[in-house]
């Protein structure tokens, strides 16, 4: 059985999904790629928007989301942290 993701991993998954679409990710795409329910996605979006990790872009076609500089920085530092943890066998 796979272990449950922690909060940092869920945030990473959301930010990676947005990043893969190059700043033009629709909510449904993010929800499926990060494997979240609609309710959980809304909760995380509220936090990520409030902390300015992501930005919302509204148009006639609907909302899309893009990574902010802070969100991209989170992904870079997350990779660094995981590399550190794995290099010492702490995972």
Characterize the structure shown.
The protein is α+β, with helices and mostly antiparallel strands. The chain has one domain: Winged helix-like DNA-binding domain superfamily/Winged helix DNA-binding domain (Arc Repressor Mutant, subunit A, Orthogonal Bundle). Helices cover 58% and strands 13% of the residues. It is built from four helices and two strands; from the N terminus they run αααββα. A two-stranded antiparallel sheet has the order 1-2. A hairpin with a 2-residue loop joins strand 1 and strand 2. Helix 1 crosses helix 2 and helix 1 crosses helix 4. The protein is globular, with a radius of gyration of 14 Å. The two termini are 17 Å apart. The mean pLDDT is 94.
The residue ranges in which pLDDT falls below 50 over 5 or more consecutive positions are none
Rough shape? Answer: globular
Total beta strands: 2
Assign the CATH topology: Arc Repressor Mutant, subunit A
Q: Order of SSEs, N→C?
A: HHHEEH
Report helical residue fraction. 55-70%
Structural class: alpha+beta
CATH superfamily: Winged helix-like DNA-binding domain superfamily/Winged helix DNA-binding domain
Span of the ends, CA to CA:
17 Å
Based on the coordinates given, report the CATH architecture: Orthogonal Bundle
Looking across the biggest beta sheet, what order are the strands in? Answer: 1-2
């Amino acid at each position: 059985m796979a272990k449950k993701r922690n909060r940092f991993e869920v945030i990473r998954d959301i930010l990676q999904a947005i990043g893969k679409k190059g700043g033009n990710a629709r909510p449904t795409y993010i929800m499926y790629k990060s494997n979240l329910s609609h309710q959980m996605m809304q909760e995380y979006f509220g936090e990520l928007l409030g902390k300015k990790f992501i930005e919302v872009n509204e148009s006639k076609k609907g909302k899309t989301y893009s990574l902010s500089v802070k969100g991209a920085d989170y992904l870079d530092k997350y990779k660094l942290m995981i590399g550190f943890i794995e290099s010492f066998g702490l995972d």
